[in-house]
Amino acid sequence: MIEYKQISLNFGFKTIFKNFSLGIRRGEKVVIRGTSGLGKSSLFALALGFILPQSGHVLFDRLPLNEDSVWDIRRKVAFVDQDVSIGNYKIADWFALVSGFEANRSLDFSNKTIKELLDFFELSPDTLEKGASDLSGGERQRAALLVSVLLKRDVFFLDEATSALDKNLKRKVATFFTGRADWTVLSISHDPVWLDSPSVRVFDLEATEWKQ
Predict the structure, then answer these.
(1) Is the torsion defined by CA of 62, 67, 73, 79 positive or negative?
(2) How many CB atoms lie within 10 A of CB 207?
(3) Which residues, 6 or more positions from 57, have their beta carbon under 8 angstroms from its beta carbon?
(4) Cβ distance 205 to 40 under 8 Å?
(5) For residues 3 and 204, what is the distance between their CA atoms, to the nearest angstrom?
């Protein structure tokens, strides 16, 4: 489904990838691990067209990622970034903003559905009336995960999306995202609840077998 083919990527004088290839099948659950600076987040940025490699290319459902296809590809992916980029919106206003985008207007952002997901992610109803800056890191992560589910995508890029959660919530979220056979999930994480799941493939950027 997602293919990195012979990718070479440099930032200044630093080589991140050289002739790097990786294939991810539809429905697969892949956890990406490795120390800082090895290119974990760069894999997401490459697949979403936020950065371009010096050589090689990315395919998404056999479609080459380029300026003509990038927006169609982004509309297939729910991306929760490490910094949880909500801005300083009140959470209810942020939900309304996301639901108002043309690509999302047919989706179910009803009060009933939002309430059900608030309950699942263990967020109180008054979370909707708070500004993003009033929430804890874990609350912001759960709000972003909630929106990712509302978007009805079947591909999820989760960048340390459970790092601020307690152990029970980490496990609940990891089980939720790895338990759906129709979802393709790429998670950057060092949390054991992700790494120890029998349904995931762990891709270790520090392992010698992955180096090109």
Answers:
(1) positive
(2) 11
(3) 5, 6, 7, 64, 65
(4) yes
(5) 17
Q: Under a CB-based contact definition with an 8 Å cutoff, are residues 113 and 150 in contact?
A: yes
Q: How many CB atoms lie within 10 A of CB 119?
A: 11
Take residue 149 and report the two structure tokens written for it: 């589910």
Which SS3 state, helix, strand or coil, does residue 204 take? strand
For residue 5, the cross-strand partners are 57
Quick one: tokens of 41? 């987040």
Q: What is the pLDDT of residues 81-121, one digit of tens each?
A: 887 877 778 999 999 999 999 889 999 999 999 999 999 99
Name the percent of the chain lying above pLDDT 90: 83
Reference 80, options 6, 170, 159; nearest CA is 159
Kindly write down the DSSP assignment for every residue of 91-109, as one continuous string.
HHHHHHHHHHSGGGTTS--
Q: Which two tokens stand for residue 43?
A: 């894999």
Q: Of 145, 161, 147, 156, nearest to 182 (Cα)?
A: 156
Token pair listed for 61: 């459902």
Phi and psi, residue 100, nearest 5°: -85, -10
Q: What pTM, to 2 d.p., does this model score?
A: 0.92
Burial class (CB in 10 A: 0-12, 13-18, 19+), 139: buried
